Amino acid sequence: MNTVINKKVRFEELGLVDYQQAWDYQEKLLAENVALKAQNRNLSPEQQQTTTNHLLFCQHPHVYTLGKSGHLENLLLSETQLNEVNATFYKINRGGDITYHGPGQLVGYPILDLENFFTDIHRYMRTLEEGIIRTCAEYGLSAGRIDGLTGVWLDFETQQNPRKICALGVKCSRWVTMHGFAFNVNTDLSYFGNIVPCGITDKAVTSLQQELGREIPLPEVAEKLRRHLVDLFAMELI
């Protein structure tokens, strides 16, 4: 357990960035923190260094990613067809099944040492979801959770036409997190037609643009979501 709690979080807006590049950057930040925690275990409290926390926001070029518990058959495209739609594909080390990232989607990667906040991965996932739910509420949309399913949904109560607006998938190593959420803002939803999103066959995918009938400025959404995450985690952004 950390003897010194650090709630400072370095925020970075990476813009449109290649998926592999963002993944490598996350792995680097996670590895540095895990190594620091291992080093601290052999030091007195006075000698220990604080771990770092990061919040990365970005967009990706068209890409499909498959989590370690996912099924390859949920990708409905061949390699040739992937090239035709100008998309790439990665098997990655987060939880969950297959999802899509692309321009107009706000992707968030918190690399947090949860020992600086709370050591509860379930609570962590629900807190990320809550940030999205509160952001949707600012646009007049009632969003929430569906029992047994990760992510944020519209029509989550009656479930007559449940639609996912945000997917989540994380990895946690020695309480340090990586990967995160993908919030559909102005996303080209046709790309979801090439997969079985998150392995769920009977529910749709939506976006803020689809629901509100207009394009929403991504920086505006990012600012609102960032504010909610800071509040929910009691972060100090630097």
Topology:
Layout: E1 8-16, H1 19-40, E2 54-59, E3 63-66, H2 79-84, E4 88-91, E5 98-101, E6 105-111, H3 121-138, E7 143-146, E8 149-154, E9 163-173, E10 176-184, E11 204-205, H4 208-212, H5 218-233, E12 236-237
Helix pairs in contact: 3-5
Please outline what is shown here.
This protein is α/β, with parallel strands linked by helices.
Describe the structure.
By secondary structure, the chain is of the alpha/beta class. It has a single domain (8-237), classed as 2-Layer Sandwich (BirA Bifunctional Protein, domain 2). 28% of the residues lie in helices and 29% in strands. It has five helices and twelve strands. Strands 1, 2, 6, 7, 8, 9, 10, 11 and 12 form a nine-stranded mixed beta sheet that branches. A three-stranded mixed beta sheet has the order 4-3-5, with no helix packed on it. A hairpin with a 2-residue loop joins strand 7 and strand 8. The mean pLDDT is 95.
For the record, the CATH architecture stands as: 2-Layer Sandwich
Number of strands: 12
Rounded radius of gyration (Å): 18 Å
CATH topology: BirA Bifunctional Protein, domain 2
The top level CATH class name: Alpha Beta
Q: Structural class per helix/strand content?
A: alpha/beta
Bulk shape: globular
